[in-house]
Design a protein that fits this description.
By secondary structure, the protein is an alpha/beta fold. The protein has one domain (4-77, 149-255): P-loop containing nucleotide triphosphate hydrolases (Rossmann fold, 3-Layer(aba) Sandwich). The chain has 8 helices and 10 strands. The chain has helices at residues 44-52, 93-103, 109-117, 133-145, 163-178, 213-220, 225-237, 241-255; strands spanning 4-15, 18-29, 33-37, 59-64, 67-68, 78-81, 151-154, 182-187, 198-203, 206-211. The strands form 2 sheets. Strands 6-7-8-3-9-10 form a 6-stranded mixed β-sheet, sandwiched between helices. The chain has a 4-stranded antiparallel β-sheet with strand order 2-1-4-5. A hairpin with a 2-residue loop joins β1 and β2 (18-29). The two termini are 31 Å apart.
């Protein structure tokens, strides 16, 4: 659908003898902050890689902004921020942004525009290695925003940061989405769910819930997202044994 930035249908990804996904379906709306949340090892990074078109898949379809994931036409429209600061620590903030702007064919003024947008202009001449963790993450975010992409995919951008720095980055994500960019942000910190417009809660390669923060709390009768997620896990564990067997059979078929 055109009002979705991402549509995933029947995604199958296998690693070794293990099915990461055995027929995953989801949709991510445009112009919002969608949080992909779940514990480490649940498949978040694999899903993000499939969306940006760098993950090898066994089946299914992933459409991004109306094109097949990984299409050449999406290279300037989709930005991907991997875990950790993917920048050069021995270069200054300005040098990093100018370098990556050149790589994507953006103009010389693009680095200055992005520095101002993410609040890094006062640190333009400092090397990234001398910055705090939160500021270094802002540089990575700035790199992702070069060229004004329509979809920004960030893999756990706030990992290892203190609550104040995490709040600052989430305020930036909100401002970017409010300006029209679709933000897809993964995290294993459940309280960050409340900062999103939409939520996809993932566990063991399956979507436990696709909802909003308000509906998540209302549906589980809890007051915080961590308890809500635990309630959903408990509910999921109560699925009838025959349904669990059906899922195992589907995983076996997917690997055949």
């Amino acid at each position: 659908m055109m009002n979705n930035a991402v549509t995933v249908e029947g995604l199958r990804v296998r690693r070794g003898r293990h099915d990461v996904f055995a027929g995953l379906d989801l949709a991510i709306p445009r112009g919002q902050v969608t949080g992909l949340l779940g514990p480490s090892g649940c498949g978040k990074t694999t899903l993000l890689r499939a969306i940006v078109g760098v993950q090898r898949v066994r089946g299914g379809r992933v459409d991004v902004l109306g094109e097949r994931a990984g299409s050449a036409s999406l290279r300037r429209r989709v930005a991907y921020g991997t875990q950790g600061a993917a920048v050069y620590p021995d270069l200054s903030v300005r040098q990093n942004l100018r370098y990556f702007a050149t790589v994507i064919g953006a103009g010389k003024d693009e680095a200055e525009r992005v520095m101002d947008r993410v609040g890094l202009t006062p640190f333009a001449g400092q090397t990234v290695g001398a910055l705090s963790g939160g500021q270094a993450n802002r540089v990575s975010l700035g790199v992702a925003l070069l060229g004004d992409p329509e979809l920004v995919v960030l893999d756990e951008p706030t990992v290892g940061l203190d609550p104040v720095l995490r709040a600052e980055l989430w305020a930036l994500f909100r401002a970017i989405a409010d300006a029209g960019t679709t933000m897809l942000v993964s995290s294993h910190v459940m309280d960050e769910a409340l900062r999103c417009d939409r939520l996809i809660l993932l566990r063991e390669g399956r979507i436990v819930a696709a909802t909003t923060p308000a509906r998540l709390l209302q549906d589980t009768g809890t007051t915080d997202p961590e308890r809500a997620f635990l309630a959903l896990i408990a509910r999921d564990a109560e699925v009838a044994p025959e349904h669990r067997t059906t899922r195992r059979e589907r995983r076996t078929e997917a690997g055949s």
